Structures are given as C-alpha cells and as structure tokens.
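Let's practice the habit of predicting before peeking. Look at the sequence and jot down your guess about where helices and strands might fall. Then scroll down.
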Amino acid sequence: MISVVLVDDQPLIRAGLRMIVGSQDDMTVVGEADDGAGAVELARTLRPDVMLMDVRMPGTDGIAALAGVLGSSPRTRVVMLTTFDVDGYVYDSLRGGASAFLVKDVPPERLLSDVRAVMRGDLLVAPSITRRLVEDHVRRSPHRERDARRLAALTDRERDVLAEVARGLSNVEIGARLHVSEGTVKTHVSRLLAKLGLRDRVQAVIAAYELGFVQPGRPEVSSSAGLRRSGGPG
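Done guessing? Here is the structure:
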C-alpha cells in the first residue's frame, strides 16, 4: 500500500486529490497539511511513501519545505504540483530533491500512474522540459571542470543508461531503447548513482549536463565523455 500525504493551502484541491488517491486499492491518504511547515511535521511523524505538495503556499512554500521534508523522511518521494509550468519552479524543485513536477490540470489517471512511477524510482518531468531547464542552468552557471575519474568509473552500459536518464526517459523506455529488461536498467541506475555519489536520478540528469557528459543544445551525449552508442551486454 502506497501511503500518501497531501499538502495544499486550498481545501478544495486537497479534497479532489483525496478522492482520486483514495479510490485506488493500492494507495491511501494518511495525512494532510495546508503549508510547508505542516508538510515537514507530517514527514517527520508519518514518513509517507509519497507526498503531493503544492509549490506556492502562504508562509512556508513547497520548495522551501523540500529540505525539511526530505531531511525528516529521506525515503519519501515528493511530487510537486503547480498551476503553472514555470522553469524556475521546475528547476528549484528538482534541485531540492523532488521526484516529480506536475501541473495541476493533469488528468487523474496520469496523476495516479505518476505516483506509481515515482515509487519505481522514475523521474517525472517531460523530457523537453527537463532538457530546457537543465541546459539553461548550465549555460548560466560558472564553468566546472569535468570529473574524469568519476566518469571513468562507469561501465559502457552504465554510460548508455546515464545518457538516456539525462533525456528524461523512464526505466521502461530505457530498457526498450537498449534492449534490456526494466530490472536490468534499475540495477545499472543504482550502480551509476553509487559510483557518482548521487542520491537519485534527478541529480543524475543535472550531473550529466554539469559534468559535460551531455552538451547543452545537443540531445546526443558529448563525444569527449567517451560514450559509445552501440549496445553491449546488459
């Protein structure tokens, strides 16, 4: 059973989310809060599997609350909800450790499938949005030297997987592209995260750009990273 906490300052929105989530046999709403401070407290006491949290709220907003939520309950997957698709909100949410960023007008069935997807460890931001916001950040950031030793620790197949993660693809999609099972992809993702010292695949997307593994403005990986595009044993 997936335990879910709802965080939104509008009671009507929470009621709608409660109805959608509560209708599922594999999900249950275990708590609600109307601001970021309440979200942090519920994360500490309930340690839910997933938290659906509004970005903009009076007092402590969702982005400001992220650190406290994940500090209190590191295993909680935070799905940020907003009325607007704004790059600044998306980047700040992902940088802060959110597992997904969704606009509130998403169809109920998509919301439910996305909750299940974050439980599988998938990054849930449209690939076009992911690429746009990360590339913009890299262009505006000071140049960082590439950590060749960290990248050299990855196997060829782990680099293949990192390249697909950087494009915002799910484990299922990556498996289809590389002709391996979803379970094999999950194993590669776990190993590359450990080798690069990253917490999750959201950080992997950002690191892929910041380390020069993927070049801004190009969907293909950087040749200087030494990535081969051919397959190999999974």
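How did you do? The chain has eleven helices and five strands.
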